[in-house]
Amino acid sequence: MLERCRRTLRHDINNAVQSIHSGLELLGKCIASSEVARVSPQECVALLQQQFVTLRETLDRLVSEIAEPAPDPDTFDVSALTDEALQLLRHERAASNAKIHIESGITAYARSGNIRTVVLALLLDAIDHAPRDATLELAVSQQNQEAIVTIKSARSSMTADETSASPLIRLIKSVLASEGVDLRIQRAGGAVNMTLHLPSPADRRSVRPTPRDAVRVLIADRNPDAADSLAMILQLEGMQAQTLYSGEQLQHVLSTFAPDIALIDVDLPGCDVYEVARAVREQDADRPLLAQVSSTDLAKHAAFDAQLLRPVEWSQLQALIAQAREQNR
Asked: What is the pLDDT of residues 89-148, one digit of tens each?
C-alpha cells in the first residue's frame, strides 16, 4: 500500500517538476542567446508561472486525497476481518500454511478500515522477515473484554526492540494511537509475538471522540506560498489546516474555524493583529493558542502565547501542537 502511494506521488510530482525544469532551461537559453531566441524571457516567465500553478494544483489534489476524513469508529467483527486478511494473502506460502486459532464472533470498537490495514501490514511484515521454512501463527481471542489479535513468527536475527523500532511498526503505532488500540511486541524463544489489544464495544469511552481528534491550525500569513506549504505539511501529519492571507476576515475565521492553534503573521495586512489577539484572549478558556510569526527576532507581545521566527522550526511547532492536544483532553 505504501509503495503504491509512493509510485503515484513520484509520477504526479515528477511530471510537474520536469515541466518546471524544462521551463528553467528554456529561460536560461533565452537569456544567454537573447538576440537569436525565438521565445522572449517574458514568455518563459509566464510559462514557468503556469507550471508552478500546475504543481500547486497537483499537490493540493494529492493532499486532499490523502487527508480525506476517516469514518467514525464503529463495532465490527474482528474474527471476520482477520479471516478476510488471510484470504487476501492466501497466495503467500507462509499465510496459506499458517496455524490459525480464530475464535468466532469477537468484536471490537474502532475504525475497521484502519484495523484491516494494520492487520494486513503486520502479516506482510511477519511473512517478509520469517525464514522460508518457518510457520506463521495467527490467533484471535477475547481477554478481559478486549479483542486480542496475535501474530507469531520466527525472526532469527531481530529482537523485540529492533522490531518495534522499524519504520513500519512506528507508522502502525501512530495510526493505532487515535484508535485506542495498543500494539505490544515481545520475543519468546526464536519467535516474535505482535499482539493487538482492541477496545470492546462495551468500552467505547476509551476511544477519543472523532470531532476533536485532529488538531486545527489557522495559518494567517501575508505570504500565500509559505502559508499553503505549511498547511500541506500539517494536513499530511493528520491535522486540519486553514490559510488566510490578509486580516480582514481574521476575527471571523478565528470564530468559525475554531482553531486550536493560530499562527499569525505580525505584518498581516488588513488588521491590527495585536488588537485581534487581545480580543481573543478576553474570551473564555476555550480559546486557541496564539503564536506571533515574524521575520525578525521581536519580543513576544503580551497578547500572544508564543513567538516564532521564520522559517518556523518544526520542533517549536510540535511543542505547540502537543500543548493544544493536552488542552483538548
From this structure: 888 888 888 999 999 989 999 888 889 989 999 998 888 887 877 888 999 999 888 999
Helices (H), the chain: 2-32, 41-66, 78-88, 93-96, 112-129, 160-164, 167-177, 224-236, 250-257, 273-281, 314-328
Domain ranges of the chain: 2-66, 74-206, 216-328
pTM of this structure: 0.46
Are 149 and 120 in contact by the 8 Å Cβ rule? The answer is no
Task: Output the CA–CA distances (angstroms, integers) from residue 236 to 63, 97, 229, 232, 240, in the order listed.
Answer: 7, 38, 11, 6, 9
What backbone phi and psi angles, to 5 degrees, belong to 185?
-125, 125
Bridge partners of residue 289, in order along the sequence: 261
Distance CA 306, CA 314 (A): 14
d(CA 141, CA 180): 18
Task: Report the CATH number of the 74-206 domain.
Answer: 3.30.565.10
CATH topology of domain 216-328: Rossmann fold (3.40.50)
User: Residues 180-219: pLDDT tens digits?
Assistant: 888 998 887 778 889 999 988 865 544 444 344 578 999 9
Contact 199, 111 (CB under 8 A): no
The size of the chain, in residues, is 329
